[in-house]
Amino acid sequence: MRLVLLCALSLICAPSLIAAETTVTCAELPLCAAAAKGDAASVTEQLGAWSPPEVNALSSDSGTALHAASAGGHAAVVEALLKAETSPKVDAGAKAAGGETALHAAARAGEETAMGALLAGGADANAADEAGETPLHEAAASGDGAAVALLLALDDAKCDPLAKDKAGKTAAEKAAAPAIKTLFADAECVARGFASCAAEKEAGKAKELAAAAAAEEAKNGAACKARGHASCAAEKEALQRAGECKRMGWSELHCACFWGASGAVQALLKGGPAALEQQTPKGSTCLHLAATAGHTNVTAVRAAVAAAVAGGAAAGGAAAGGAAAGGAADLGAAGDTADADGARPPQVLLAAKAQVGALDSAGMTAFDVAARNRCFRRWWWWWWWWWWWW
């Protein structure tokens, strides 16, 4: 029984022992010898025998029969070996001395037909030998453009053009001929995620431009902040507003009131109270402009008007204030409420003792303007609601 087990073990381990230290040449192995000669008939006959030879037996000079057929470019023999129904089957990834596969041998020899048969039979184009070189490295080093093109035509997952050997070199770097290097250009760019090298170049330019634009924007942003603006966009908007104000003959205070810049209003009022009553060419004061733009807390203005009337203001101002107070009473009856915002230009102006009863060229006080705008907004809302309903 022990003898039987030892015999069986020796048969199982025989191929690996041969792989490790074989001195048998290909010529001494009938299947390998026939494959090396390209004798498809003899190979087919041996594979179909009642007791076929060891199909993956390694020789010391040529590897397996598949290696020998591949190196010789015998595609018909390669196909016959890979399709043979032997047990075990022919191993497309079997490695000979140095760890090279049959595809390495075919690529080095520039045998494209045999390479195609091996790839169709399941050979791994990314298999590396002991030096870390893939079949693509072998094809590139041999200078066979057709073999290189055949491998590069595969998907990146099946043949990686960026794979490096143990020396850190890619297949393109192993190529000596300039024409072979050219074949790798687009393949490497595609492997890096671009449609072509031209697309990668354009993407690089776009990235550089974006980086330059970002740097310029950061530089400009810092300069704009140094000039007292939150951003360059805010500075641009401020300049546009300043231009509009200048065109209409407004002062800086008028402009700040109209645009609701409470901080600017407070700063400008430090120059003295005379600016409070300065009028635009159309007779509007800062308080009129704030009311026109809708920055008005109606309740605050109404209270200020009432206080001015009760305090016995000048005759003209008191009469105008009385008219405004009457408007306030009517508006209050309609259910008006004060805005819930923080300090707005009107509050700042009222705190600075602005004359609430001042009339513009149309004979309206700031409160009259605010009430008119509020009524217009309500009328517009009701009209829109009626139109939508019907």
Describe it for me?
The protein is an all-alpha fold and 390 residues long. It folds into 2 domains: 15-177, Ankyrin repeat-containing domain (Serine Threonine Protein Phosphatase 5, Tetratricopeptide repeat, Alpha Horseshoe); 251-389, Serine Threonine Protein Phosphatase 5, Tetratricopeptide repeat (Alpha Horseshoe), CATH 1.25.40. The chain is 60% helix and 0% strand. It contains 20 helices and no strands. It has helices spanning 2-21, 30-37, 40-47, 65-71, 75-83, 102-109, 112-120, 135-142, 145-152, 171-174, 178-191, 197-226, 232-247, 252-259, 262-269, 286-292, 298-310, 315-333, 345-351, 366-389. The longest helix has 30 residues, at 197-226. The chain starts with a helix and ends with a helix.
Ends distance: 104 Å
The number of domains: 2
Poorly predicted segments? 1-20, 301-306, 312-343
Structural class: mainly alpha
CATH class of the largest domain: Mainly Alpha
Give a topology summary.
Blueprint lengths: L1 H20 L8 H8 L2 H8 L17 H7 L3 H9 L18 H8 L2 H9 L14 H8 L2 H8 L18 H4 L3 H14 L5 H30 L5 H16 L4 H8 L2 H8 L16 H7 L5 H13 L4 H19 L11 H7 L14 H24 L1
Helix pairs in contact: 2-3, 2-4, 3-5, 4-5, 4-6, 5-7, 6-7, 6-8, 8-9, 9-11, 14-15, 14-16, 16-19, 16-20, 17-18, 17-20, 18-20
